[in-house]
Amino acid sequence: MLECIIGQRIAAGIKAAFNFQKEVYPRDENGLPKVTALIRNRIEGAGKVVTETLFDSVWVESSLCNKKAQRQGLYKQIIGLFEKEVSSDITILDNEPCDLKRHEVDKLPLLLFASQILAHLPYNSLSDPLFIIYHSSCICALDGNEILVRFAELLGNE
Q1: E strand residue ranges, 34-103
Q2: Where are any strands of DSSP class E within the chain?
Q3: Which of 14, 32, 45, 142 could serve as a FRET partner for 80 with CA atoms 20 to 30 Å apart?
Q4: CA pair distance 119, 52, nearest whole angstrom
Q5: Do the beta carbons of residue 73 and residue 6 sit within 8 Å?
Q6: Does the pLDDT value for residue 134 go beyond 90?
């Protein structure tokens, strides 16, 4: 139960951090906000650059990294951002406004932000990335064809 609550709070924190950066940071030439979950630190004397996420300190200093069930609950919460929403099953007619499709396109920067966090978390066990890969492949197996169609529409390829 506790891991579910902590996972929900961290997933909400990811959304809050994304929305904060989206409002505060300047936009690029395409009008998109320069939002990133990564922090690059240069190690003095070694000439090395280390990349971490905004949530590394939360991850390392909390008890999340000690228990497998809590880690997997957190991963499920973050991966849940990538799952198709129930409301997106509604078919949109061509003559009606496409607010739902616009919402899905607007969600892409948040998904990029979440994927940066998943890619750079300090994993303690080999089973953690495998857990993420397994659940990602399940999402692709269920929604893969629809995702390909949406990317083709997004890129303008009919």
Answers
A1: 38-43, 48-53
A2: 38-43, 48-53
A3: 32
A4: 10
A5: yes
A6: yes
Identify whether the C-beta of residue 135 lies closer than 8 Å to the C-beta of residue 76.
yes
> Quick check: 11 and 80 in contact, CB under 8 A?
yes
Instruction: Enumerate the domain spans of the chain.
Output: 2-155
Q: Take residue 99 and report the two structure tokens written for it.
A: 């607010």
142 pLDDT higher than 70: yes
- What is the per-residue pLDDT across 116-131, written as a single tens digit (0 to 9) for each? 888 888 888 889 999 9
One-letter amino acid of 125: S
Tell how far CA 147 is from the center of its chain.
16
Buried b (16+ CB within 10 A) or exposed e, 5-43: ebbeebbeebeebbeebbeeeeeeeeeebebebeeeeee
pLDDT 10s digits, 69-106: 878 888 888 888 888 765 544 444 444 445 545 556 66
pLDDT of res. 131: 93
- Helix H segments across 39-87? 56-61, 68-79
pLDDT value, residue 1: 57
Contact 35, 15 (CB under 8 A): no
Contacts of 117 (CB under 8 A, 6+ apart): 14, 37, 53, 54, 55, 78
